[in-house]
Amino acid sequence: MLLQIVLRASLSVAFGAFIGWERSTKRHAAGLRTFILISLAGTMATMLDTYLLKDTFPYPLLSAAAVIGVSIISGNSILYSSKNQIKGLTTSAGLWAAGIIGLCIGAGFYAAAGIGFLAVVATLSLFPKIEMFLKNRSNHFEIHLELKSKSNLQDFVTTIRKLGLKVDDIETNPAYLNSGLSVYSVSLTISLNELKKHKTHSEIIEALSTLDYVNFIEEIN
Predict the structure, then answer these.
(1) CA 34 to chain centre
(2) Given the DSSP bridges, would you call strands 86-87 and 140-147 parallel, antiparallel or unpaired?
């Protein structure tokens, strides 16, 4: 019994630590200790549920509470920036996944825990490159645009149309009302075939950043 508890707790710490390490290397808020604690809490809750189910409790209440708790913590790790970007969504999902892996370890379901662990690590480590590759080849993207003056907006629209871009939508960003800048979220479509073939989003944005009236510009992820 003691050996099983040590094994499950150790696996939970190891798996949670590895996922947390991957997140912390990319400077995300929820790092090593957070993932370890979430995974370990899930494991301990499931072990206690398993113990109680044998004699006393007919329902796995603690495991259900652990899932709810992880969901709340994960939701609180999502941040909304002034640039209309959602931050921490992947970390939030990673926290939730670490908690579920911990539950699997606690229940002694090692095969599911191991496969889940490998899948989470692969998703966090490998898929960003694939995601970026696909994103850079999409005809649609959105930018955060800061202009030095409101009167420059028409000049900017005229310029991007000449470059082969189409404006789908422009929204004023209210977070910058008293900053002295005119700030917008702009949805764009690449309409020129030559531009689609030879230029990535980053290259297009870099070119637009050289305009005299553009204070700052970046793609919204």
Answers:
(1) 16
(2) unpaired
The verdict on residue 182 lying in a domain is: yes
Q: Contact 190/202 with Cβ under 8 angstroms?
A: no
Which amino acid, one-letter code, is at 184? Answer: Y
Dist. CA 22–CA 41, nearest whole Å: 20
- What does DSSP assign to residue 155? H
Q: Which domain holds residue 212?
A: 135-219
Please state whether 146 falls in left (phi above 0), alpha (psi between -120 and 50) or beta. Answer: beta
CATH number for the domain including 167?
3.30.70.260
Query: Total domain count for the chain?
Result: 2
Q: How many alpha carbons lie under 13 Å from residue 190 in its C-beta half-sphere?
A: 21
* pTM for this entry: 0.53
Q: Report if residue 57 sits inside a domain.
A: yes
Residue 10 has pLDDT above 80, yes or no: yes
The CA distance from 192 to 219, in Å, is 19
pLDDT of residue 215: 92
